[in-house]
Amino acid sequence: MEDYKYLFKVVLIGEAGVGKTCLVRRFTQIWDTAGQEKFRSITQSYYRAAHGLILVYDVCSQNTFDALPQWMTDVEAFANQKVLSYLVGNKTDRMDAREVPTHIGRQFADRYEMNFLETSAKEADNVDKLFTDIAVRLTDEMRDRSRLAPDSNTTNISTNTKSISSCSQCFKP
Ligand SMILES: Nc1nc2c(ncn2[C@@H]2O[C@H](COP(=O)(O)OP(=O)(O)O)[C@@H](O)[C@H]2O)c(=O)[nH]1
Ligand SMILES: [Mg+2]
């Protein structure tokens, strides 16, 4: 832990089954829910002090896309206004089953001023890009901020970590 210059908290949200746990299994410093989304019991504490936020839907499930406005209500209520947010359409490997076209996902992301990516946790498509983009952007932001105020760069860094429960259905890296 002491070897890291910055530690960022990135939270993943979205309907159950969209692939959050599979996405995150490749990256141990990212927080995942422990399935609370099934009970809509994600609260302020999960979002607190998050630097990054990834809202995931399944491109093969219109229902998970239709639930996004509800998730945004939570984000607007609980997340830091300056959180770096990404909308991610996962499961692009299931081409024949796609229900949500790319441009519709992108349109939603634009409306809420979020970054947008489509991924496949199964094929590892764009997963590295997602997490490295977030890490690079947050690091740049933090560097810029510490240049302005040399001693303030640690105040917003969460030192909490949470182990990620294993998921037998996830694709091994
Ligand atoms: N085809 C495909 N299946 C996926 C992908 N990501 C996750 N899954 C499957 O979707 C199901 C739910 O994944 P999980 O990560 O537990 O979803 P969570 O509830 O959002 O954490 C599991 O059966 C995974 O194997 C993906 O990119 N492609
Ligand atoms: Mg999960």
TrEMBL record:
Q: Which SUPFAM superfamilies does the entry mention?
A: P-loop containing nucleoside triphosphate hydrolases
Q: Which InterPro entries match?
A: P-loop_NTPase, Rab_GTPases_membrane_traffic, Small_GTP-bd, Small_GTPase
Q: Which family does it belong to?
A: Belongs to the small GTPase superfamily. Rab family.
The name on file for this protein is RAB30-like protein
Natural source organism: Mya arenaria
